[in-house]
Write a structure and sequence with these properties.
Mean pLDDT: 97
CATH architecture of the largest domain: 3-Layer(aba) Sandwich
Shape: globular
Order of helices and strands: EHEHEHEHEHEHEEHHHHEEHEEHEHEHEH
Number of domains: 2
Helix content: 25-40%
CATH topology of the largest domain: Rossmann fold
Largest sheet: 7 strands, mixed
Strand order of the largest sheet: 3-2-4-5-7-6-12
Radius of gyration: 22 Å
Strand content: 15-25%
């Protein structure tokens, strides 16, 4: 293990390269650096855990990249790709096929807004939410360190679960954030993978020496039954992911769960969220609990398959009210996706807990501790606003929460610097280098 100051894209790419034979790519902001970094490593002769250089092919579009991923997987090669936004949507048809054939793969996604009334290259979960019913497992990272750790867990889990994974982290907020993190060496990663599962996958590869019929068309007499036959893989997947989280914990020095709770052990008010917002909410929870507030945050790691059992185990028994935060908008729905999932789990398990939902951070809109505090204040109110938005002033439907109190959760001793550039003068590159110099050549931790 070694420490290095990197961004989220580099952290995920470091792991993807280790566990992949092939990468089929097509660039799209903000995921492009992952493919570029892997291409550079391959050109310079870096070897994966099997002692081979990654084979990289750039296709004509994301649809072509997804088709190439499918074909490569069918041939028995571990294959990955990197994408976001409309690029991910172009991969959806092949994602159904890859999941339906239970091929192990990891798509690393820098979650980004999907163009609606206007184009936005910035981060939210609109693209990832469009893949919920493809059959891919969805695993979320909330920081640069987690981008490395969850990438590792995804690549290990997909082989054992025989379910493909989307590993996603917030575009720009995490993908381009620079932090000093801990990365595993490839010789530390190699022993973690299930070699029997690897051999099983490679034996399934299409070859003229072992002909097999695959990709058939099925009629009404059998299609339904075959579709339901895959249930056992998704029922088993959550426990497999948790087992892998437990397995890698001693190596990483960090322990993860499908749902991680942080806050007062006797909390009455809890926020449920995922992605980079978990960091802001956790900071706010730490600030508020020191003031005696009984609040907490439940971080969603594995979003699909959604494990009701693990969710309820992580939720404090004292919880009376939940605010679910979604970083997406589903026009016309009775609520956003994560909100509906939480409501369903509580209803089906007879939990009488008040649940409200809200939207935040669309198109990388700022999400601060002061806004988190406003969510908790609304949750504790006698008549809380449901289906709210926070971070904007909604003067159309008047559903936004007012942020009336500014709070600071910044630790004492933190040094902040702000640099102004004139454009094309090298300021951004110089600042990134400065952050890396501080992180890599001193004992201090730098973030930028």
């Amino acid at each position: 293990m070694f420490k290095q100051t990197v961004d989220g894209n580099t952290a995920a790419a470091h792991v993807a390269y280790a566990f992949s034979d092939v990468a089929a790519i097509y660039p799209i902001t903000p995921s492009s650096p992952m493919a570029g970094i892997c291409d550079s490593w391959a050109a310079h002769g870096r070897k994966n855990i099997w002692g081979q250089k990654l084979q990289i092919s750039e296709l004509q579009s994301e649809a072509g990249a997804a088709g190439a991923v499918h074909g490569s997987l069918a041939a028995g090669a571990f294959t990955t790709t990197f994408t976001a936004s409309q690029g991910l949507l172009l991969m959806v048809p092949n994602m159904y096929k890859i999941a339906g054939e239970h091929l192990p793969a990891v798509f690393h996604v820098t979650a980004r807004a999907v163009a609606a009334h206007a184009l936005s290259i910035f981060g939210d979960h609109s693209d990832v939410m469009a893949t919920r019913q493809t059959g891919f497992a969805l695993l979320a990272s909330g920081s640069v360190q987690e981008a490395h750790d969850m990438a590792l867990i995804s690549h290990l889990a997909t082989v054992e679960a025989e379910v493909p994974f989307v590993h996603f982290f917030d575009g720009f907020r995490t993908s381009h954030e620079i932090q000093k993190i801990e990365l595993l060496d490839y010789d530390e990663m190699a022993p973690l993978i299930d070699t029997d599962a690897v051999k099983k996958f490679r034996r399934r590869g299409l070859t003229p020496e072992r002909p097999i019929q695959r990709g058939t068309a099925q009629n009404p007499d059998i299609f339904f039954q075959a579709r339901e036959a895959g249930n056992k893989y998704y029922l088993a997947a959550p426990d497999i992911v948790q087992q892998i989280m437990d397995r890698v914990a001693p190596v990483l020095g960090r322990r993860y769960h499908l749902f991680d709770y942080v806050g007062a052990p006797d909390a009455t008010d809890v926020i449920v969220t995922m992605g980079s917002s978990t960091e802001a909410v956790e900071e706010t929870v730490s600030y508020l609990t020191k003031q005696g507030r009984k609040v907490g945050v439940l971080k969603v790691r594995l979003y699909r398959p959604f494990s009701a059992k693990h969710f309820l185990q992580a939720l404090p028994a004292t919880c009376q009210r939940i605010a679910v935060l979604d970083r997406t908008k589903e026009p016309g729905a009775v609520g956003e996706p994560l909100y509906q999932d939480v409501c369903t789990v509580l209803k089906e398990n007879g939990k009488k807990i008040t649940v409200i939902g809200g939207r935040y951070g669309l198109g990388s809109k700022e999400f601060t501790p002061s806004m988190v505090n406003a969510v908790f204040d609304n949750l504790a109110a006698a008549g809380p606003v449901n289906h709210f938005s926070v971070g904007i002033t909604d003067d159309v439907t008047f559903a936004s929460l007012p942020v009336t109190k500014e709070i600071s959760t910044e630790p004492e001793g933190t040094v902040r610097c702000k640099f102004f550039g004139l454009g094309s003068d090298g300021t951004v590159g110089a600042n990134k280098n400065s952050i890396k110099i501080i992180g890599d050549y001193t004992d201090m931790y730098a973030q930028g």
